[in-house]
Automatic annotation (TrEMBL):
Entry GO MF terms: monooxygenase activity
Residue intervals passing through the bilayer: none
All residue ranges annotated as the Rieske domain in the record: 28-131
EC class name: oxidoreductase
Alphabetical UniProt keywords: 2Fe-2S, Iron, Iron-sulfur, Metal-binding, Monooxygenase, Oxidoreductase
Superkingdom assignment: Bacteria
Keyword rRNA-binding: no
PANTHER family assigned to the protein according to its UniProt record, in alphabetical order: 3-CHLOROBENZOATE-3,4-DIOXYGENASE, IRON-SULFUR DOMAIN CONTAINING PROTEIN
Annotated protein name in UniProt: Toluene-4-sulfonate monooxygenase system iron-sulfur subunit TsaM1
UniProt xrefs under InterPro entries: Cholesterol_7-desaturase, Rieske_2Fe-2S, Rieske_2Fe-2S_sf
EC numbers on record: 1.14.14.-
Length: 356
């Protein structure tokens, strides 16, 4: 594990700035959506590592360094051939372990080159491809974040992709500081938050706010509140947000559950998947319907909150990227903070980067 949190500057130890901290690589990160990897290889990135993802003939996901051991070009430009990935340049084929398995122009007196690129543990679960890019021996000891609502027939999912040119800490702080509802006033997401309790341990920070929600999903037509503002009425609801390192989980009342799967790309770029679930639990009659019909409802309503979610993401990304730019221009400038949840978040980011 890299320890980049303490830098030695001319003999003096100096803390790395929060906006330059690394990540704990010994965690499972959602590096792509399942649907992004079909028959072609996909180039992806986590913390400055270029990765290629591809499916073998059984559909299983494999993850390798995205470089051909022959001349270092990107394997992701190549093609999948059975269980192997074939480089675009001279057609060398590599297996899932990253070993050279076939070269068509090998002469009779030549052996396959004994070269190997790094392979990474990868899993596919709940609509995402998860990668473990740290110490491989730890992979099976660490759980990946469960999203039970993904398959559950009572939840309707919407996914919005966040691509922002900023350090991941800006995104997490945005997600944990519910006072920024001010920014989303026109999208009517939540209102009047007041931080109530704060809990923290070495893996997570949970902030509970008293807030108000515009939505109540208790009638069959309530889903249309996602589309029509005039149907919304403010009412009190508890709002809970948790930084479950390295991801984020939130509930608003009992109707909404939101996840943010964070995949830091570099010190100044972050990709994340925001997954919004609307609960249909209030409709007990639904449970009596045949499973195929409930599945049909779930699938047809997939993406119902797309416009809302994408709108919120656009507003957040603009702010987060401005924060990053301001930091790059003047990293010495002091910021002022009123929300005590953010101190806990920064502490967790630092301890995971240092000791992870
Ligand atoms: S560079 Fe990949 S096969 Fe030659
Ligand atoms: Fe936001």
């Amino acid at each position: 594990m890299q320890n980049n949190a303490i830098q030695s500057v001319s003999g003096r130890e100096q803390k790395t700035h929060i906006r330059e901290l690394g990540i704990n690589l010994d965690r499972w990160y959602a590096i792509a959506r399942s649907t992004e990897v079909q028959t072609q290889p996909l180039a992806a990135k986590i913390w400055n590592r270029a990765i290629v993802l591809f499916r073998d003939s059984a559909g299983k996901i494999n993850a390798l360094e995205d470089r051909c051991p022959h001349r270092q070009v990107k394997l992701s430009h190549g093609q999948v051939k059975g269980d192997l990935i074939e480089c675009a340049y001279h057609g060398w084929r590599l297996n899932a372990r990253g070993e050279c398995a076939e070269v068509d122009y090998l002469a009779e007196n030549q052996k396959l080159p004994n070269c190997k690129i790094r392979s990474y543990p990868a899993k596919e679960q709940n609509g995402f491809i998860w990668l473990f890019s740290g110490d491989e021996t730890q992979a099976e000891k660490i759980d990946l974040l469960d999203l039970p609502e993904w398959e559950h027939l009572n939840y309707i999912a919407t996914v919005s992709v966040i691509d922002c040119q900023a350090h991941y800490s800006f995104l997490i702080e945005n997600l944990m500081d519910m006072y920024h509802g001010h920014l989303h006033d026109d999208w009517q997401a939540w209102a009047n938050p007041v931080l109530d309790t704060l809990e923290e341990n070495e893996h997570q920070v949970t902030a509970r706010y008293q807030a108000q929600s515009y939505y109540k999903i208790d009638k069959i037509w309530s889903i249309s509140q996602l589309f029509f503002k005039s149907l919304r009425r403010l009412h009190p609801e508890p709002l809970e947000v948790s930084y479950v390192y390295p991801h984020w989980v939130s509930t608003l009342g009992s109707d909404f559950k939101i996840y943010c799967l964070v995949c830091p790309v570099s010190e100044t770029a972050t990709r994340a998947y925001l997954i919004h679930f609307t609960s249909l639990n209030a409709f007990w009659r639904l449970h009596k319907l045949p499973v195929w019909f409930r599945r049909f409802i779930k699938d047809s309503l997939f993406g119902a909150a797309q416009k809302l979610l994408d709108g919120l993401v656009r507003q957040d990304v603009l702010m987060i990227e401005e924060e990053q730019q301001a930091f790059l221009q003047n990293s010495e400038r002091k910021s002022y903070e009123l929300n005590r949840a953010l101190a806990s978040v920064q502490k967790l980011i630092r301890s995971q980067a240092e000791n992870g």
